[in-house]
Design goal:
Oligomer: single chain
Strand content: 15-25%
Shape: globular
Distance between the termini: 25 Å
Structural class: alpha/beta
Number of strands: 8
Strand order of the largest sheet: 3-2-1-4
Radius of gyration: 15 Å
């Protein structure tokens, strides 16, 4: 599989254009490029225009109103066509091997497994989280290692 276009990253977003830009730029640097679907929940900050101009390969489902996180995620999930789906917050930046490592972990399963991951997050105002395999490097410099 190798991850190449076997995974769709769904990103719910509302009025966080510049954070979303950094998140999408990190996905462009992936060693295995995923499909990307942004669910824009009625942003008024120019998100849709930025997506069209700067990220033409990113699919966008635009709502005319604020959906809330769960509803935006559900809308995104119903619009994917790949065997695997990952959810990513718009204030994160993915490690360049994030997609490849996640896809490799799922190889060999038939049918595709239902896998979930939840982790505690320490929010620091103005900081961006970086998503990595096995660890999170927070923009403020702290490192949190996630273990099962």
């Amino acid at each position: 599989m190798g991850g190449e276009r076997q995974l769709t990253v769904v990103i719910p977003s509302w009025n966080r254009r510049e954070l979303l830009r950094r998140c999408l730029e990190s996905l462009e640097r992936q060693s295995a490029r995923p499909q990307v679907l942004v669910v824009d929940a009625g942003s008024t900050d120019g998100t849709a225009a930025m997506l069209a101009a700067d990220f033409p390969d990113v699919r966008c489902h635009r709502s005319d109103r604020r959906l809330g996180f769960a509803r935006a995620v559900n809308r995104g999930l119903t619009r994917t066509e790949t065997p695997y789906v990952a959810l990513l917050n718009n204030d994160t930046e993915a490690d360049p091997d994030w997609v490849r490592a996640g896809s490799r972990a799922l190889e060999g399963f038939s049918p595709a497994p239902l896998v979930g991951h939840a982790a505690p997050v320490v929010a620091v105002p103005g900081a961006v989280q970086a998503v990595a395999v096995g660890e999170v490097h927070h923009a403020a410099g702290e490192e949190v290692v996630l273990r099962a």
